[in-house]
Design brief:
Number of helices: 11
Pfam families: CAT_RBD, PRD
Protein name: PRD domain-containing protein
Shape: elongated
Organism: Arthrobacter gyeryongensis
Distance between the termini: 67 Å
Keywords: Repeat
InterPro entries: BglG_antiterminators, CAT_RNA-bd_dom, CAT_RNA-bd_dom_sf, PRD, PRD_sf
Strand order of the largest sheet: 1-2-3-4
Order of helices and strands: EEEEHHHHHHHHHHH
Oligomer: single chain
Structural class: alpha+beta
Largest sheet: 4 strands, antiparallel
């Protein structure tokens, strides 16, 4: 890589052998460097590339506001998420994590309490992500020398959820979590019982909804050429279909889109399985 411009003591703008512009981060990396100097990737802690149509200067300024220690800690957390959740270690994961850690440390130092209104829902819907978030707190403590509040694991879990479905910003993950919790509440209210959210069918329901969000985002909803299976679901589980229609309305309001007939039918099938779980133990 070749230095294009020194940003500060720890960061430079550079170009690689293919002419791609980069922001290169490393302790003391910018000290004494001049435009045209060569930099080996081995001496860089992090290398960032602006997303397509994004402004590299804006990315550089954003990264400049994040302490290098937080960037490095975020990299370690991303590697942990790769091991535990099979996530790809990417800039899209590391940068939001680093930004969050920087803000979390700042809040802790100033004694500002963090608010996590979806903590219960996250514990129910994303147990693996939350467990990884809690484990990440130990990594952060070892790296930064501060112990973040235990509930920060909730926010880290939401970043992991975002990374799985490539949804930018925490707002999307929070929206998805809230909608899933409301979907369970609708099932409870419709059938007059409380779904065991630890059951296998509840886990399948959550997984189905999460991938439904992903399909909607990518414009690839389920739409079968043959309606035989869909018709069979509708005929076999009429009450579940009614409940699925309520969930459909909830999802369409939240996602600002229309669901296909097939998507609603598969929702009904999952609702029917939740009902079967409860009836089995009555």
């Amino acid at each position: 890589m070749q230095v294009k411009r020194v940003l500060n003591n720890n960061a430079v703008l550079a170009v690689d052998d293919d002419g791609k512009a980069l922001v290169v981060i490393g302790r003391g990396l910018g000290h004494g460097r001049r435009p045209g100097d060569e930099i080996s990737r081995e001496v860089a802690d992090q290398v960032f590339v602006a997303a397509e149509n994004a402004n590299l200067e804006r990315l550089a300024r954003f990264l400049d506001d994040i302490p290098l220690d937080c960037l490095n800690a975020a990299g370690e957390v991303a590697v942990l998420a790769q091991k535990r959740l099979d996530l790809r270690v990417s800039q899209a994961l590391v940068v939001p994590l680093a930004d969050h850690l920087s803000f979390a440390v700042e809040r802790l130092q100033e004694g500002i309490p963090a608010q996590f209104p979806l903590a219960w829902e996250v514990s129910q819907l994303y147990p693996k992500e939350l467990a990884t978030g809690r484990e990440a707190l130990d990594l952060v403590e070892a790296s930064l020398g501060v112990r973040l509040h235990e509930d920060e694991a909730v926010a880290l879990a939401m970043h992991f959820v975002n990374a799985q479905f490539a949804t930018p910003g925490m707002e999307k993950a929070m929206q998805m979590t809230g909608v899933i919790a409301q979907a369970f509440a609708l099932v409870d209210k419709t059938f007059g019982f409380t779904v065991d959210q630890q059951s296998m069918n509840a886990a399948r329901f959550v997984t189905h909804l999460r991938y439904l969000f992903s399909r909607v985002a990518s414009g690839k909803q389920i739409s079968e050429k043959s309606s035989v299976l869909v018709d069979a679901i509708i005929q076999s589980h009429p009450e579940a279909v009614v409940c699925a229609a309520k969930i459909q309305y909830l999802l369409e309001m939240g996602l600002d889109t229309s669901l296909t007939r097939d998507e609603v039918a598969y929702l009904a099938l999952h609702v029917a399985r939740l009902v079967a779980d409860v009836n089995e133990y009555r």
